Amino acid sequence: VAFVVCRSLEGLKTFSYLEELILDNNLLGNDLLLPRLPRLHTLMLNKNQISFQRNTCKILLDHLAEVVPSLQYLSLLGNMACPNELVCKENDEDDYQRYRYFVLHKLSNLKFLDTRKVTRREREEALVRGAFMKVVKPK
May I ask which residue range the UniProt record assigns to the signal sequence (predicted)? Predict the structure, then answer.
């Protein structure tokens, strides 16, 4: 196990058998591009610079769905995209739940998102309304 702060993920393409990847605290943003990692099941992106600006988070989630098809555990805590009260006092549980529906709509194979197990009810709600659940607040 090695811990490295990085801005480029170019070298990951040589690790096609990688199953877990922790990229916490790396200043990574919505422009994050991972190589195809077909066996990756756990991805931690906590405390980076991922946000819900425009459609960029949607693009990132679509990218993850394509390049990490086995993803089951994802954590985005500490990013602006993950609207919980720890990041911003203006966020509430409803904001966080809408975020979960949106992420689960894009990444339907997830079993855990952040620190919580994905429930059957959440999965059903994400299928029906997840595409419309981006958390957007007026400035």
Answer: none
Domain with 41 in it? 2-132
Give me the pLDDT at residue 18, please.
Answer: 95
Q: How far is CA 47 from CA 31, 76, 128, in A?
A: 15, 7, 30
Q: Which CA distances in Å does 95 have to 32, 35, 84, 92, 126?
A: 24, 31, 7, 5, 14
Cα–Cα distance for residue pair 56/67, rounded to 1 Å: 16
pLDDT, tens digit, for every residue of 100-139?
A: 999 999 999 999 999 999 999 999 999 988 767 654 544 4
Span 66-102, pLDDT tens digits: 999 999 999 999 998 888 766 667 777 888 899 999 9
Q: Which residues contact 114 (CB under 8 A, 6 or more apart)?
A: 74, 75, 76, 77, 82, 84, 100
Tally the domains of the chain: 1
pTM of the model: 0.85
Residue 139 domain flag: no
Assign residue 38 the CATH number of its domain: 3.80.10
